[in-house]
Amino acid sequence: MADLESFREDVRQWLAANAPKSLVGMTGGDLEGNWGGRKATYPNPDMKRWLELCAARGFTAPEWPREYGGGGLSREETKVLRQELARAKLPPPLIGFGLTMIGPTLLMFGDEEQKKEHLPKICRGEIRWCQGYSEPGAGSDLAGLQTRAVLDGDHYILNGQKIWTSYADLCDWQFCLVRTDPNAKKQEGISFILFDMETPGVSVKPIKLISGSSPFCETFLTDVRVPVKNVVSKVNNGWTVAKALLAHERTMIADAFGSAAGGGKSRGFTALARDYLDFEDGTLADASLRHRIAQVEMDARAFLLTTQRARDAAKAGHAPGTESSIFKVYGTELNQRRLEVMLSIAGPQALGWEGAGFDERELDLTRQWLRSRANTIEGGTSEVQLNIIAKRVLGLPD
Amino acid sequence: MQLVLTEEQELLAKTAGDWVREHSPVTRVRQLRDTNDPTGFSRPLWKQMAELGWVGIVFPEQYGGAGMGYADLAVVLEALGRTLAPEPFLSTVLLGGQALLVGGSDAQKKAWLPGLCEGGKLLALAQQEPKSRHDLFRVATRARPDGTGFRLEGEKIQVLDAQVADALLVVARSSGGERDAAGLTLFLVPRDAAGLRVTPQTRIDHRNAALVRLDGVRVGADAVVGAIGQGGALLQQVVDCATVGLCAEMLGATSQVFDDTLHYLKTRIQFGVPIGSFQALKHRAARVFMEIELARSAVMAVARAADAGDADFEKLVSLAKARCSDAFVLAANEAVQMFGGVGMTDEYDVGFYLKRARVAEMTFGDAAWHRERYARLGGY
Q: What is the least distance, in Å, from the CA of B112 to any CA of chain A?
């Protein structure tokens, strides 16, 4: 513990000496921040400097081994680092699927060459990754995917279409599921492969959503040549890799929406209520809205306590408990309910699309609400998650 | 606050679980009901629970207790809740006993607590009135000065275990209007006091509860528990702590009725397959499971907050009681639906859980009442 405290002191001093002052207070949610990559733009050059400084110390991927560009820190030290960043009101230096999805997957399944090639670039924020999983005909039934990979010497030739590829238009590399054995049982003919988005034959088209933004894309693959050495784990073992990565993805989604619902953003609840609603003797006059707010706040509190319980159990050395299976479903539904209630609080002022008569907070709230409807679909629909709970946790028969 | 059981608590949970399976099946509750047992619980088993250290678990060692905390008590009550054990934990340990421990004089504590911890003396808290619903401070029962003491006049309803208690802690108004928080005083009244009439009531869960009529009951100054006119705060604190215990019991019962439901879903065959293979039922079961996990987190948090004297304790009490109320009612309702017709029969145990769920929900405030309180504590 003494070591931990001296580590904290070191971090604190380093932050005081190095952290750009212009970034203080930019502690956006887990889905907002510096995603890095070749196409990254930096309206504030300090964002780039902050990334470089942190990457040099291994602070972008604190728990990864030093040899791959990580910080080689323990879980406890990483927690201290996060606490100190929060204390100094500093944003994480880098976010994205490299750190949260493909990186941990390569650490578990990648060969030495793949780890040496990709992990340091992730840590330095040089390469931004996207996820080629879903296809027009393979949504919840992901294992039904049809994108073909045919062996041709030391390359695979990829043909097919991916959809809902998050930020593919801004990404540099894709981790992708392809069918390498069309004759095997559907889960057993899939491989997990990596390719550069600049490879000839790759094209990307953004999809405009109901919120007006285009966070998702279609990715078209036409005779794309990818070296065989880019297959992660064994050929036809991709489903195992894919499932492990999905677990990382769901944890990330649950964390993001859980903390949004229960953490900083929920403090906005009462502030919002005070701006839009009447109070009588310190109490919200609209009793039905008061109860809806209380319900969501209490749900958020119980959800946060449950994530804490999972962490405390892990710290105490227990195997992951059944509680963590609920995070994806509950966290995303909670986020939707939170935004529904906020919409009710803002009332007619939540109906603006753009322009006169609506302020920035109102427009942002409305777009967030529209965006949130995807939360219970992306990364495994709530219904698929409930099936998983029923089967794996409750032991109900197929 | 660590939301994880210590090794000692793991062991306690196992001991309590084993003991409950061996000594306290649900058939015991059925038998007490069917034989109209006048005691309403088992005195020999209560004695055993005392010997195991459970009755005195939260009382200091100087009174014969174990000096442990609510986090430990919660583990025991969860195990007992699984099979709806009707022993008088709420009335004697959590309400009457805690009121004496927190507010009582040295003499009162010495006179009552050692006997209580041994599994002998029983207490009850006479608080609820015909018009009070969930409001602790809505008290019409009056305490009028009479010489050096008082005369108590009023009517209490659904007083837990009043018919078996050796003494009752009576909440009465010594000053102020019917809804004022100020002006309440607690009195320790022997059950055989002149003018005190106890009439057993039968509720849907068949646990002990009674009407208590106070017709000019005379008590001395030494019957006052805590400070005169300041019983409101004491009452709130005691009921909040008792709510922690009730929540643990509810969590146990909820978990058990859900386990029973899962077992049924896996073994009941219709259309040639187990009904648990139907997605309509799988999803409903998974949703009940989520509610139970969230309730468990809230119960663990509030029990630890009680032990640590956490500033957030009151909010956590309301969080836990609202969640446990909703989860228990949901799990019991879903159990009856998924068991189908047999779930409606008295022969199956499911109905016992459904009935207990409603009683527990209404005890110390239902979910809506606690959401209202949570909002008020949150400043809106």
A: 38
Length of chain A: 398
Cβ B374–A297 below 8 Å, yes or no? yes
User: Does B300 contact A at CB distance below 8 Å?
Assistant: yes
Q: ∠ CA A149-A153-A155 to the nearest 5 degrees?
A: 45
ipTM value for the complex: 0.95
Looking at residue B346, what is its pLDDT? 97
CB of B273 within 8 Å of a chain A CB? The answer is: yes
What are residue A178's phi and psi, to 5 degrees? -135, 155
The domain made up of A240-393 is a member of CATH 1.20.140.10: yes
CB A224 within 8 A of CB A158: yes
Confidence of residue A312 (pLDDT cuts 50, 70, 90): confident
Contact A316, A351 (CB under 8 A): no
- Blockwise average pLDDT, block size 10, chain B, 380 residues: 94 98 97 97 98 98 97 98 98 98 97 98 98 96 96 98 98 92 96 98 98 98 97 97 98 98 98 98 98 98 97 97 98 98 97 98 97 94
CA angle B330, B333, B339 (to 5 degrees): 130
Does the domain at A2-123 match CATH 3.90.190.20? Answer given as: no
CA distances to A31, A160, A222, A246, A248 from A252, rounded to whole Å, are 10, 28, 31, 10, 6
Q: What are phi and psi of B315, to 5 degrees?
A: -65, -40
Phi, psi of A212 (to 5 degrees): 90, -15
**CATH architecture label of A129-236:** Beta Barrel (2.40)
The Cα–Cα gap between A228 and A151 comes to 8
In chain A, domain spans: 2-123, 129-236, 240-393
Residues in chain B closer than 8 A to A313 (CB atoms): 3-4
Q: Residue B129: which residues within 8 A CB-CB, separation 6 or more?
A: B138, B139, B140, B141, B154, B155, B156, B157
pLDDT bucket at A30, cuts 50 / 70 / 90 = very low
pTM given for the model: 0.90
Take residue A161 and report the two structure tokens written for it: 């279409």
* Least CB–CB distance from B285: residue in A297, A303, A396: A396
* Per-residue pLDDT tens digits for B259-282: 999 999 999 999 999 999 999 999
Q: Do A394 and B285 touch (CB under 8 A)?
A: yes
Tokens of B55: 């009755």
